[in-house]
Amino acid sequence: MTRIHQLSTLLANQIAAGEVIERPASVVKELMENSLDAGATVIDIDIEQGGGKLIRLRDNGKGIHPEDLPLALKRHTTSKISDFADLERIHTLGFRGEALASISAVSRFSLTSAMLHQNGSVVSCEGSEDFEIKLAAHPIGTTAIVRDLFFNTPARKKFLRSEKTEFEHIEEYVKRIALSFFDVDFTLKHNQKLVRHYRAAKSEKERVQRLSVLCGPTFVEHSIKIESEILGLKLSGWIAQPTFSRAGPDLQYFYVNGRNVRDKLVNHAVREAFHDVMYGDRYPAFVLFLEIEKNQVDVNVHPTKHEVRFHESRLVHDFIKNSIKNILANTRAEHSPAIPIKTPLVNISEKMAVYEALQAPLRLIVEQDAVPKSIPQVEQVQKPMEYPLGFALAQLRNIYILAENTEGLILVDMHAAHERVIYEKLKKNYESHQWMSQPLLIPVTIVFNEREMCVLEDHAAYFEKLQIKMERMGPDTMVVREVPFELREGDIASFIKDIVTDLSLHEGSDRYEEKIHHTLGTMACHAAVRAQRRLTLPEMNALLRAMENTEHSDQCNHGRPTWLKLSLKDLDKLFLRGK
């Protein structure tokens, strides 16, 4: 058997490169992070053959001292931390001191840099421990050149994809960083052709313009700005309205103190916030930035720093979820921007006499017929300008309501809209009453493993709050004797096991709330006015007024849109007016 021996520095660096340098995009990411940590405001990237042949990155950062250049290519050498206290309060993107050593171990690498009032120098190596240092003319900043990536590790090189695929990964990394550092100018070239140029964005207008370039104008058009702050936590950015959902998580960007991360806890919080308004298996779109105290988050979890760990994970989870839920609650017609239309609307003021008695809120009657038979009189009548959904004109095929406002034509799916109105009312009514439990005629016996039993004991108060009463009958057995009235007909054992799983993973569970909301949603669906039901003008207008005063009224309970607007400008385009 081979005796234990110490690996050479080169082999150790090549092994480390397997963790840090997965593909050319990983090299670009590490070099960009170093540039940003050096205070660069301009970063130029040149790529050839998808990064396999050449990666050149130049910045205007502070540069590296000539005497430090050889150290920069060695493992565990850094200027960003000095002791354990620094490790607990990391404020830079990089800190491990492994990136340049790993890159130089699997490529032909050179690093040229100059500081203010210092001569420029260049250090180079070709996959070895031999460094060559020379003087070099260079402006303030650093240029890193990576040639022939994985030339000395053919096993790694054969796993690279096509040139097009590898460059797409590089583009995505540049996009992720450009979304976080708005004040930095980024240029990306491929095979000597300019592919992307993200100009520095100083003002809010310029930031939105960059967001539009990176995520698409449709995302910006359907996005909602979010700003929330509490207890040392700040969440900002943009979330797309639920109707702008995606088939996959391709438009989800989350940053913690400027660092792009893919965190299960964050994803779960966002999914929980959208669960009541998202259609089917669709995914929400968002660009969110979380600012948190440096000592409250551990970024030293994964070699590529894609994952983080929060010290108060449940607090962060609930803060993100509630912040997004509060913003989504305001997705209703009254918050839609009013766009002045110069073209006069025909006879809209003359219709006021017809509608004077129609402006009271819709009565939410769940039992029997859900649409009120009569609309109560009101003393004061608002002007049509003040109603975002305008006034009803007619009903189309007894399914859609056609309405007119100051901007143009409003189309409303009457069943979906009324379903949301009733659903929100039922939720408020339910939340205002105390949850009641009911003894089970036949108690339910559930067997748990050792870890699940520990979770049950640690969260006993949580189950008491849910009115779920259990007794321990053995080392691995619990007997459920009482459950909330609404859960009596379901699979109680599976439901409780799912809650235990959530508690072990996320330190909390929303399954009970989801179960109740599902029941209320079913009640609202059955109680809402059905298609093919002819409504009178008073009933249609009462529904419009109720929508304007209901949270989440832009979507039904299943995430489908409840209304849409065709402005006069949109209609003119359809009929080619002005052409």
Q: How would you characterize this protein structure?
A:
By secondary structure, the chain is of the alpha+beta class. It has 19 helices and 22 strands. The strands form 5 sheets. It has an 8-stranded mixed sheet, covered by helices on one side. It has a 5-stranded mixed sheet with strand order 9-10-13-11-12, with helices on both faces. The protein has a 4-stranded antiparallel sheet with strand order 16-17-18-22. The protein is globular. It starts with 8 loop residues before the first helix and ends in a 5-residue tail after the last helix.
The CA-CA distance between the termini, in Å, is 85 Å
Strand fraction: 15-25%
Profile the largest sheet: 8 strands, mixed
Which residue ranges are poorly predicted, with pLDDT under 50 across at least 5 consecutive positions? 335-381
Average pLDDT, all residues: 83
Category by helix and strand content: alpha+beta
Helix proportion range: 25-40%
Instruction: Going across the biggest sheet, name each strand in turn.
Output: 5-4-3-6-2-1-7-8
Radius of gyration: 30 Å
Oligomer: single chain
Sum up the overall morphology in one term.
Answer: globular
